Amino acid sequence: MSGAPSLGARLAARTGGGGRLRPSRSGLAALALLAAFALVPPAAQALGLPFLTATATRMLIFGLAALSLDLVLGLGGLVSFGHAAFLGIGATALGILDAHGLRDLALQVPAAVASCGLFALVTGAIALRTRGVYFIMITLAFGQMAYFLAVSLAAYGGDDGMALSRRSTLFGRPLLDGDEALFYAALAVMAGALLGLRRVAGSRFGRVLRGTRDNPTRMEAIGFPAFPYRLTAYGLAGALAGLAGVLLANQAEFVSPAYMSWQRSGELIVMVVLGGRGTLVGPVVGAAALIALEEVLARHSEHWRLGLGLILVASVLLGRGGLAGLVPGRGGRP
Q1: I need a surface site. Which of 6, 224, 286, 289 has the fewest CB within 10 A?
Q2: Distance CA 151, CA 234 (A)
Q3: How far apart are CA 52 and CA 165, in angstroms?
Q4: Residues 6+ positions from 126 with CB-CB distance below 8 Å
Q5: Where are the alpha helices (DSSP H) in 203-225?
Q6: Model confidence at 315: pLDDT above 70
Q7: Rounded to whole angstroms, how far apart are CA atoms 147 and 85?
C-alpha cells in the first residue's frame, strides 16, 4: 500500500485541520434549537398569545436567510452587503407567478430558487474578482440594482408592492393555510438547511472554503483556486436565501421591494455577527435574538432603536464570538 496521505488528509494538514466535522456538539446544538422552536406553537396556545407563533415563524425565515449569508461570510470570509436581494428576488418570483394564477409550491419554489441561484452566479462571477471593501461595494451595487428594478415593475405593484391572492398550495392542497401550518413548514425547511449546511461545512468543499478564507494565497499554491469554490458557495447561498423569500412572501401574503433594500442586507449581517459567524446555529440564534429585541423594545419606547444599538455595541465589544461563543468549547462551530 502507498504511504502517501489522502487528499483530505493533506488539505486538513495544510489548513491546520480546523475543518474536521464534530457531530456531537454542533448536532446537539442544532437539535436543541429545533426542539425549542417546536415547542412555541403549543406554548403560545396555552398562554393565549397566538402572535408568538407568527413571531417565531419570522425568526425562522430570517434565520434561514442569515444562515445562507453565513455560508459566504462565516465560511468564505466574504462580506456581502447585497444579500437581501436574493430574499427579495425569491419573494418577487413567487409574487409574479401568483399574479398569473400559478400558486403551487411545486412551481414557485424551483422558479424562485433558480432565479436567485442564477442571479448569484452571474453577479458573483463579477463581484468575486474583487477583494475587501471593493467586494462589499459591488455586492451593495448589485443589490440596489435589483431593488430599483423591482420598484420599476409597475405591472407587479412597483414601489407599492403586491398582495398575494392567497398562500401557496402544495400539489393543489392548501397546506400552508393557518399560522401553525406555516410555522412547521418553515421549521422543516430550517431543519433541512441545518443538516445540509452541516454536511457542506464538514466536506472537503467546506474545508477548502475555510482555507480560502484564512489564506487564499497558500490554497492557490497547493492547487485549490479560490474563485470556483467561492462562486459555488455564493450560488448556494443565493438559492437558499431565495427559499427564505418564498416563506417570507407566504407569511406576509405580500411582496415588497423593501425586502431587498440595503438596510435589510445590513440586518442580515448583524444577525450573523450577533449570533456568531462561522457557526452552525449562530445565525439562527442571532436572527431570533434581534427580532425578539425589536419586539420587546418597541413595546416600551418609540426610541427603541437607540436601545437596540447600545445592546448590539455591547454584544460586539463583550462577546466577539457572538451568542454562540457563550457555548463552552468551540462555540458551536461545525
Answers
A1: 6
A2: 25
A3: 25
A4: 138
A5: 204-214, 216-221
A6: yes
A7: 7
CA distance 241 to 71: 11
Task: Please write the tens of the pLDDT for every residue from 49-108.
Answer: 989 999 999 999 999 999 999 999 999 999 999 999 999 999 999 999 999 999 999 999
Q: Which grid coordinates belong to 53?
A: 407563533
Asked whether the beta carbons of 129 and 67 are under 8 A apart, the reply is: no
Return the SS3 of 254.
strand
E strand map for the chain: 162-163, 254-255
Residue 149 to residues 65, 153, 330: CA-CA distances in angstroms?
21, 7, 43
Report pLDDT for 56. Answer: 96
Please give the Cα distance from 248 to 227 (Å, whole number). 31
How far apart are the C-alpha atoms of 205 and 191, rounded to whole Å?
21
In the structure, what pLDDT confidence band is assigned to residue 324 with cuts at 50, 70 and 90? Answer: confident
Do 288 and 274 contact (CB within 8 A), yes or no? no
Give, in order, the Cα–Cα distances in Å from 219 to each of 5, 13, 21, 330: 17, 12, 20, 24
Digit-coded pLDDT (tens) for 27-58 = 788 899 999 999 999 999 999 898 999 999 99
Q: Give 279-304 pLDDT, tens digit per residue.
A: 888 999 999 999 999 888 888 878 88
The Cα–Cα gap between 73 and 15 comes to 18
Q: What is the pTM of this model?
A: 0.88
Contacts of 187 (CB under 8 A, 6+ apart): 34, 37, 38, 60
33 Cβ contact list (under 8 Å, min separation 6): 281, 284, 285
Distance, in Å, from the CA atom of 233 to the CA atom of 143, rounded to the nearest integer, reads 18
Buried b (16+ CB within 10 A) or exposed e, 61-82: bbbbbbbbbbbbbbbbbbbbbb
CA dist 197 and 203 (Å) reads: 10
